Amino acid sequence: LPPNHPSLATSYNNIGGVYKNMGNYSKALEFYEKSLQILEKALPPNHPDLATSYNNIGLVYDNMGNYSKALEFYEKALQIFEKALPPNHPSLATSYDNIGLVYDNMSDYSKALEFHEKAHQIFENALPSNHPSLATSYNNIGTAYFGKRDYSKALSFLEKALSIFKKSLPPNHPNIKTVKNSIDNVKKKM
User: Fold this and answer.
1) Where does each TPR repeat begin and end (predicted)?
2) Which domain holds residue 47?
């Protein structure tokens, strides 16, 4: 294939994903950036695949603790998704959630809550009431309220998350344990 063929971008992206999962973030960035360079030349500037590429790079920076770079790439992804997708698309919600999680990591819980609530509105309208992504959304909001030390609201959202996870996931799923631990932490603070 020619060096700028979109299929190469897919391969580079997949290799980047493997390196990310292995925790080798510098190699992940190297391959994600190769993929992005091809996609930027091959696709129109508002193509959702470009947004996915920006999102993947943002995720690596987030995992590395470089939150300003993570936000930069997550916001590029969000700008494309806002133009290219309908306002109730789950990918748009995921983009809002990713930005919210960075703000959580930065301890800016009010800003985190703003983005988690935007995501939640979309998930609530687009997904069935027992969908695990909706539970994750409740969990993210609960976590932000915990950060704000509003423990009663945190507990309410975490319990909603747990209820959905129990209905939609196997009983030994790690998300169930994580939410139960969060609920225990909230109760200790109360």
Assistant:
1) 9-42, 51-84, 93-126, 135-168
2) 1-82
